[in-house]
Amino acid sequence: MKVSLFITCLSDAIYPRVGEAMVRLLANYGVKVEFPTVQTCCGQPAFNSGYWDEARATAKTILEAFEDCDFVISPSGSCTGMIHHYPKLFENDAIMYEKAVKLQSKSYEFTQFLVQVLGVTDVGATFPHKVTYHPSCHGSRLLGVKDEPLALMSKVKGLEFVPLPFAEDCCGFGGTFAVKMSEISGAMVSEKSDHVKETEAEVLVGLDMACLMNIAGNLRYRNEPVRVMHLAELLYEGVKQA
Amino acid sequence: MSSGHGHSDGATVKERADLALNNDFLRKAVKFTTERLKGGKLKATEEHGNWEEWRERGKQIRLHTIAHLDYYLNLFVDNARANGVHVHFADTAEEAVHISLSIAERKQAKSVVKSKSMVTEELHLNHALESIGVEAVETDLGEYIIQLAGETPSHIIIPAIHKNRYQIADLLSEDAGEKLEPDTSILAGYVRRKLRAKFLEADIGMTGCNFAIAETGSMVLFENEGNARMVTTVPKTQITLMGMERIIPSWADLEVMATLLPRSATGQKLTVYMSGITGPRRSADADGPDEMHIIIVDNGRSLQLGDPEFQELLNCIRCGACLNACPVYRHIGGHAYGGTYSGPIGAVLTPSLQKNVAEWDDIANASSLCGACYEACPVKIPLHEMLIYLRRRKIESGHGDKVEAIGMKGFATVMSKSGRFKAALKLGKLGQKLVARNGEIRIKIGPLKGWNSVRVTPSLPKKSFRDQWGTMEAEIRNGLKEMDPDMKNRMEAIVKDRANGGGHGHG
Amino acid sequence: MADTHQDWLIEMEAESRSKQTKFINSISEKLRRPMVTEPPRHPFRGSPDFWNDYELNEEERIERFTTNFKSVGGHVQRLSTMEEVQRFIADKASELSAKYVIRQNQPELDELGLEGALPGAQVSVWNSDPEQHWKARAAEADIGVVIADYAAAYTGSITVLSSKDKGRSVSLLPTVLMAIIPVERLKTRLGEIMVHFDEGGRDSLPAGIHFISGPSRSADIENDLTIGVHGPGVVYALIVG
């Protein structure tokens, strides 16, 4: 079984620790993750802004990178969700369309893979902190990743889970939206930070570094002492501690 | 009322939104109302149960009807005529206005009482009626208030969502010619008395249409106040303006719509009144209109027919659930959208109803594509995807922003080859030396201006994931554990199932 | 321009019919196929099967209707005979000092004998005199009395159908509405009522079919619930039998 990591350009460039947490956690289950280096970006920024030719140019690197593996895992619901748009993106190219459908059927967000494919909910972690969780829109709404992260957290020893009020509200990232409509985006992320603060959690976790970069950036700007991390990081740190 | 009135000033969605964001009352009022409606909807749908199956059924009924719209519209028209209704067709807003005014002139009407209708807002019909000396009175409480204020609705269900009781008391006091206290029951009581008189003296009652039942030629109205019943019961002439896509085949299908619409709109099991009007009054009846007209309006709707990316837009049942779910709407309110329809549905519908996409397209940018609208939609319209299609069409038609286009070209150049991406990262690490401090970037210039005005940006770490991979891989290979046979079997079964056409794909 | 209004309507109809052909043809063209003229197969007609099987027994229906109707500010009274209905209405009318009462012209309501039971009020019978202005009579009434054609427990709705003897105004214009629901007319689902309209077809339908689920309401001013904006602000559902 060949399992390949789709790191996403953001985690590759800014949050390599997330990818490391994923591959090291999976190694504990005998999953040897591959990393095809021809991959770059899923093309979402261009796709969502309407530049589909440009999106196709980058999407091709992803289709090429993962052509011969059995499972593709990614630390982002949004970038995995983008792969689900590939069939539409390549609807006028029969060969690429077929590849796109194939890739879609084997692509998993990280917790989806852990829970649904490997059947793991208890990774044996200990993490004695108060934690809240922001379900990113694309992962939860478009991929339907809702219960997996909660199941994983419920098995972490010492973890006190505090539900985030209005958790399902978008954090305001939205890719180029945060730049084009910066005032609206700013109002949205400020509201999200208010809700995080209300929980009095020490740690905010999520499944998408783009959203977390947005929220963390605002929390940091406001000097709120909340640690922001990907759930894979939390689990890996918890396993090391246990 | 002209199309420009009631909108916040500002030429673009961004400018209007920025103004709205500075209006504290507006933000709080919109937030409070949408939370209330959203909460009501959630409670009602959970209590009812099987919501996904109901949504799917609603979607299928709408898909079926629109796919056979020619058949069902013909059937509706034949039946409505047999019921004694005068049916008219209008390709454009101008034609619909022309027909409405001809009827009003023929009836020598002095006044028209109206119940809430988004189509008539689309046509700016009140203004047209007034231009020929016919008084047009909105009779829904919220609509009456915004009519007095000379504004347009900012929410499809709660039109005066943006006004507080003091503003409303001032408006109604001016109307009454006496001071009215800012107390809801006093204000509503005044409107009841005032409009009673208007109903009884009006020559024409004008309505919209929630659904039109093809098999019996009936038109159906959902409402809570009773004003739509007044409008269809008291005046001698009734004019109904109906979007050409309002059709459903049967009363059996109405049960599904009646299950979806009120729950999605306000969380009610049913609106206080649901009325099915089948023709004018029968000759022996002592109330109901003597004469009934239905004007079937296209006004850009047929542009969606046969367009695989947008045809589902015609499935919309105008419940407003997407507005209540939308975090952007909640922050900027309805007027910032600049069209008759606001929120996610407005962001897609407004440009889609106009042939001139370029003029309206910046609305499509006012979304973070979070998909809350799709999740809330009782007939599952993929609005979040349509927004992307609109953006793409703008680029394809050559109306894109030139600077952005250059940026995207650059993005594609870098990202289409991993070597270039790697080089760009290296360059970035060099470049950020000027601005990064302690792993953070705080400058507010260039592309980081908007972003960094409420955020801190992380800088690039020394080594990217791909830089670290070689060492990491060697370590992992050494410490790799044996895979549990059950796990292995599961993975193999999934791969096998996939080869047989299974898999876990989504739309 | 046409001489009489009737001529004008005929002109408009001719225009409409010629426009119809163009209008519908353009829809067929946009859908890229010839015009559909035969009824298409509609596999998703009406509610899902699991819902059509849903049924409450009589006691459950009464209870559900009552809960729903009360939750929106309506009043519900369970009464066993029409005599009790008469007494209830008479007591309420005197409690509210009703001066004008209007009722539908129905045999069950004739038998109720409200005229004798309400000495302090003038009781009018809808459309019983061609000289009267009946909408005005209903508008001035303190109480309107109707007998429901159907009711649906699941949504807490009363259904009234219009006719010569059953004015739409009677359930709409008075301040207070009293709706008598014979218990056998109380169904579980809306669909059990709507099926009659599909089965009876266009010819059988009255001009007005109204589902009423409580008193008139609005939340248009600062979300503050107001009762009785245009329709009756006080509604009694009297379940009999």
Automatic annotation (TrEMBL), chain A:
Gene source species: Cohnella silvisoli
InterPro entries assigned: Cys_rich_dom
Cysteine-rich domain sequence ranges: 3-83, 131-215
Pfam families assigned to the protein according to its UniProt record, in alphabetical order: CCG
Lineage, top ranks: Bacteria, Bacillati, Bacillota, Bacilli, Bacillales
Coiled coil: none
Name assigned to this protein: (Fe-S)-binding protein
TrEMBL record, chain B:
Keyword 4Fe-4S included in the entry's annotation: yes
Keywords: 4Fe-4S, Electron transport, Iron, Iron-sulfur, Metal-binding, Repeat, Transport
4Fe-4S ferredoxin-type domain location: 306-337
Keyword match 4Fe-4S: yes
Pfam family, one: LUD_dom
The name this protein goes by in its record: LutB/LldF family L-lactate oxidation iron-sulfur protein
Lineage, top ranks: Bacteria, Bacillati, Bacillota, Bacilli, Bacillales
UniProtKB/TrEMBL annotation, chain C:
Highest taxon listed in the record's lineage: Bacteria
Domain LUD, chain residue ranges per copy: 62-240
InterPro entries linked to this entry: FTHF_cligase-like_sf (IPR024185), LUD_dom (IPR003741), NagB/RpiA_transferase-like (IPR037171)
Protein name: Lactate utilization protein C
